[in-house]
Design goal:
475 residues, alpha/beta, 7-stranded mixed β-sheet, disordered C terminus, 17 helices, Rossmann fold, globular
């Protein structure tokens, strides 16, 4: 059974009109009487949900009607699309080919999803389908009179048999969209009509709970309430810390550790979903072998509670494997390794509190790591850059466009090179001046390229193009 559910996004900024510009005014005129629909497969967890929760209020502020639909499906469907996710990143996944049975499951589920979505839509509406899970909806939506674009947030610049297999699987649906949107030009596959391709880099919303400034006392209060840093949970949070956030931190943040992180101890943080491509286990191994022996740092690996991410069946297994690896460590190293699970229910209060804890974790970190094997575009990287946190990341996918080595962060060419990764992290741990220089440059770069208003203007240009309106408009 497929359920297409509208998601309402509460945001007090929706009452404040967006400053008038020519592109926004043109978009408002072209979209009068229409609704812009965004469709994905989860309301919480992962970068697409983060982007949409930020994007929908921008439409409201511009006076444009926009809605967000979440396509819900069974685990068999998400097993198929998770394999597509691996293939699109050039990885074999489980190694078995996607055959007729998997194609039939994908087609059946997306056709049912399209039928459910059309109950909410009207001919002439604009629909932006997000990621491979939703592309199969495009033919039915186009046939019903919708103006459809497909946005792929995944990809790799490497053309391999795995990537070709993913495109072959989706080829029957790939001609339907009017426009294809990619995060980087390198992700565009051969064979797509170049005239229908648009490149839009993802962004972050600097006014969001996850990115707002925090005082040191608030950061410590939140993390102390979670139990990650001393004093323990039972001690009241610092004055001025939001009681809703500290209550969430105490109740919904789970920490696996031998003892809290000492308040002044340097901390290396990787924050991501429990996905094989994020390589949390690799970060743990690099810390144990190459960072812990030459520093006093602690490692924090944080991600959403795997049970709360419905569209990613691998989360539970990956987290369990990392948990076992931590448990097997010698006690003197294990005490410096902390695993963190963040509750992520689809509830506005919980989502705001979750974002505040993520904010505190990133701002508390001495070094932020992102040792992904592949990365379509690293939103967690952008968040750390905005907070002027010194960063060590793999030089893969979108991260190569986001980070300039030795200027806005440190990059490791080969994600499997644990000594090189450990070396770059320890460089930052031991060099405060380097941390501060990279952090300042990272924030400046993020402010110029990766904030939400720029992405919203890019979306307006896309919508004007889809409507056939003139696109020679000053932004």
């Amino acid at each position: 059974m497929v359920d297409i559910a509208p998601v309402e996004v509460a945001d007090p900024r929706t009452t404040a009109p967006l400053a008038a510009t020519r592109v926004i005014a043109a978009g408002r005129d072209a979209l009068a009487g229409r609704t812009v629909w965004h469709v994905n497969t989860t309301a919480v967890g992962g970068g697409v949900a983060e982007l949409l929760r930020s994007a929908i209020p921008w439409y409201a502020r511009a006076g444009i009607r926009a809605r967000w639909l979440v396509m819900k499906a069974d685990q068999e469907f998400f097993g198929v699309t998770k394999q597509l996710h691996h293939l699109f990143h050039g990885r074999p996944g489980h190694g078995r080919p996607l055959g007729r049975a998997e194609f039939a499951e994908y087609q059946r589920t997306t056709q049912q999803a399209a039928a459910g979505a059309l109950a909410h839509m009207a001919p002439g509406d604009l629909v932006l389908l997000h990621d491979p899970q939703t592309l199969g909806m495009a033919p039915a939506l186009r046939q019903a009179g919708m103006l459809v674009a497909w946005r792929s947030h995944v990809g790799t610049s490497c053309q391999s048999p795995e990537v070709a297999a993913a495109w072959d699987f989706l080829e029957p649906f790939a001609q339907a969209p009017l426009r294809y949107v990619f995060s980087m030009p390198e992700y565009v596959p051969p064979g797509l009509d170049a005239g229908r391709v648009v490149v839009i880099a993802p962004s972050i919303d600097s006014a969001s709970e996850k990115l707002r400034p925090m005082a040191d006392a608030e950061i410590h209060g939140i993390l102390a309430a979670s139990g990650l840093v001393g004093p323990p949970r039972s001690v009241p949070a610092a004055q001025g810390t939001d009681s809703v956030v500290t209550e969430y931190a105490a109740r919904r943040v789970a920490v696996w550790q031998d003892a809290p992180v000492p308040p002044d101890a340097p901390t290396v943080l990787q924050l991501s979903r429990w996905d094989p491509l994020k390589d949390m286990a690799g970060t743990l191994n690099a810390f144990v072998r190459h960072i812990a022996p030459v520093s006093e740092a602690h490692l924090a690996l944080a991600g959403p509670d795997p049970a709360d991410v419905a569209d990613d069946p691998e989360n539970v297994a990956v987290f369990a494997a990392v948990l076992r690896e931590r448990a097997a460590l010698p006690a003197d190293v294990r005490r410096r390794v902390h695993l963190i699970g963040l509750g992520l229910a689809d509830d506005p209060t919980e989502l705001r509190a979750n974002a505040a804890v993520v904010n505190a974790l990133q701002r508390h970190a001495t070094v932020v790591a992102q040792k992904s094997v592949e990365e379509g575009f690293g939103l967690a990287v952008t968040e750390a850059m905005w907070k002027a946190r010194p960063l060590v990341a793999s030089a893969v996918g979108g991260i190569r466009a986001q980070v300039t080595h030795e200027v806005t962060g440190l990059l490791v060419d080969d994600p499997a090179d644990l000594p090189a990764f450990g070396h770059q992290v320890t460089r930052l741990l031991h060099d405060k001046a380097l941390r501060e220089r990279l952090g300042r440059a990272a924030r400046d770069h993020c402010a110029r390229h990766y904030l939400a208003e720029r992405e919203f203007r890019d979306h307006m240009m896309l919508h004007l193009d889809m409507c056939g309106a003139a696109t020679q408009v000053d932004r």
